[in-house]
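Researcher: Go.
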Amino acid sequence: MEKPDQFRELFRMQKALNDRIGVQTDGMSEEAKAKWILNYCRAMTQEIAELTDSVPWKWWAKYQKFDEQNARVEVVDLFHFLISLAQVLGMSADDVFAAYLKKNEVNFKRQDSGYTKKDEHDSKHI
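Model: Structure:
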């Protein structure tokens, strides 16, 4: 049996979870999109805070330990919300992959040029 495309499978699974929760990302109005983009951004901000708490960032506190297992869970939580955000914006796994390729190329060009000046137009084609 052939192994499924893992990235597409994540998108399929997240859609199923969102449907079960009651968040229908297909055909959202502009108002609903804005609401859910904000919801997912807030959720990701919280997950980033939880990820940050997995590492000993308080230089004054000697009791802290690096919790790699929890850090991994928080990264997966971020993927849940990031995929949901992409779906709200009407992006499929293929769309995200294609945009990633284009943006990655832009980022390499920026590094090659020294990225000394921002060009607001270098990502408009993505």
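Model: The domain at 6-112 is CATH 1.10.287.1080 (Helix Hairpins).
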